[in-house]
Amino acid sequence: MTMMVEAEVKRGDVPGELLRRGSLRGLLRMALEEWTVIALCAMILVRLPNAALPWLYPVVCLVLAGRFHALGVLLHDASHMPLRRKSVLAFAVEVLCGYPVASTIEAMRYHHLRHHRDSGMETDPYFKRGPARPLWWLLNVARGALLVPFWTIRACFGAIALVVPPLRNTYGRVFLQDRTHRDLRKSAELIACARAELAQVIGQAIIVAAIVAWPRPLALGYVIPVTIAGVLSARRLLLEHTYERTTDRRPETIIATTRDNHVDWLGSLLLAPRNVGCHIVHHLHPQVGLEHLPRLRDWYRQQYPEQYPPARTGSSA
Known about the structure:
By secondary structure, this protein is an all-alpha fold. It has helices at residues 24-47, 53-79, 88-98, 105-117, 134-142, 147-163, 168-175, 188-213, 215-239, 251-257, 265-271, 279-284, 293-303.
């Protein structure tokens, strides 16, 4: 049974200036910042002497992994925005942030918003079962290495499911992590996800063609770093929750079962980039832009010092 903090937490008391939403322009700016670093790292790799590769590559690789991790976080923020249609700006954010990690805004929105709505419940697509022992941690973190390949297959499968309706239930349950057990063949939301996969397939084809054409530089500059980014993302996901079953969506329940993690410089660089480590306030106010979460977290820590738990820094925290 979930332990609840006793004092009532009132989300309505938060000052309005702390509840600022993100914007597509802001996400595009941040994406270009990340791509600037990626481009600089690519230039370093191109000019790096073979003799220096064993010494300097691990550093460059980790910086790249952190940037691809950050791109996934920015795509995640776009999924929280109430986008009625995919504008040119939204598509630009999707191409820059989503395609490198093999996802779309629609796909991210499908499983991620369900996680927010049903966190800890039977229908939570991110819930991890089993006791949090070392082997449990190792297996759940290691499977992050398969994240980008799995999502690449999802894009192809979804594009096929768009024209082959019997495949839509598999597409939704396996690749979009739907836990409702409903018939999804006529789901407008799922069909929109499948339609978005068409452009994603083209993007993935271009990436695969580039890897075939330039295997060594793309392996060093993309395949290895993005694989590490998947592992980092899986690790962060484990740190973000206590994985106890919940039965309600009260703020006290969110605080009791959600955890901040890596809110220091190392988080910004690699482990929880773009303030995604401020995870409790992100769940309390999911439409607040990532750039505004630190101030919101400070307010909650000041108002509820006994209830608000310290940030995690590792699996033993």
